[in-house]
Amino acid sequence: MKTNEKGIKKISDVYFCTPSNLALNTFLYVTCTGHYLYEEGYHVQRDKYNSYLIMYIVKGKARINVSGRYNAAKAGDIVYMNCYEPHGYEASEDLETLWFHYDGISAKEYDRALSEYDCSVFTLLDASRAVHYIKKIFENSFKGNRDNEAVISSYICAVLSELFPSLTSYEGGSVNGSTILEDTMRYVTENLNGNLDISVLAKNVSLSEFYFARTFKKVSGYTPHEYVVKARINQAKILLKGTDRPLKKIADECGFSSESGFVTTFKKNTGVTPGEFRKIVL
């Protein structure tokens, strides 16, 4: 259906959904969804709107306000808002969005997890999967709610799941966590036999040690030190199986400080010594 709201172009569409008792008690569910084209300067500010909002910025730029904290959103970004808290947004220029409001039995838990990122604007390295499901949610309402509520719930979960590894806010700015992970993994691979202390890794991505360590852990599941150790052990496994180099040489090439340190660390992480691993038939 079309909207008559001031500042929203007439070609925009909005659809409202009424969840069943099953959905209310079991699933995540959509309460309304839309494809909006806003005129520059459009703004809305609410103290509360009982739902959560996912908004994909198709074109243009917006200024997002969640509980008095402002962030800029551009084309390709995905905005997440807990609308139970004060919130709003403004079209910084002509703006096009696909969006949906949702709620449900696990919505608060998702919000609690996402709130650790302390950010309302998510920049994904590859947003195609999230955008695919945002479009499916809108198209389902556009076509008369053909998909059952369990399927729609799975679409919402798929969108939310895409947000977790994407962005971490720090020191008033924002960092793409996936980029940090990729840059760090590449640097570690290229410098296995060098100094890979956290100070070096943090400097490589231009972050403080504290925020680098926190971001890397959230995105990868490992501390930087744990990842370096695993990378060195994995390379050592390749050399143990693929060459007849002595253990001291392998230890040096993989960045271990000594042969004894290499043997101790290898056994601690694999359960066998390097010599024993070399003899195992794969």
Annotated CATH architecture of the largest domain: Sandwich
Estimated structural class:
alpha+beta
Assembly type of the shown chains?
single chain
Largest sheet: 6 strands, antiparallel
Distance between the termini: 62 Å
Q: Which whole number gives the mean pLDDT?
A: 89
Element string (H = helix, E = strand): EHEEEEEEEEHEHHEEHHHHHHH
Shape: elongated
What CATH first level of the largest domain would be assigned? Mainly Beta
Share of residues in strands: 15-25%
**Helix fraction?**
40-55%
Q: Total number of β-strand segments?
A: 12
Poorly predicted tracts of residues: 166-174
Number of domains: 3
Number of helices: 11
Describe this structure in words.
The chain has 282 residues and is α+β, with helices and mostly antiparallel strands. It has three domains: 13-164, Jelly Rolls (Sandwich); 173-221; 226-279, Homeodomain-like (Arc Repressor Mutant, subunit A). The protein has eleven helices and twelve strands. The strands form three sheets. It has a six-stranded antiparallel β-sheet. A four-stranded antiparallel β-sheet has the order 3-8-5-6, with no helix packed on it. The protein has a two-stranded antiparallel sheet with strand order 11-12. It is elongated. Residues 166-174 have low confidence and may be disordered.
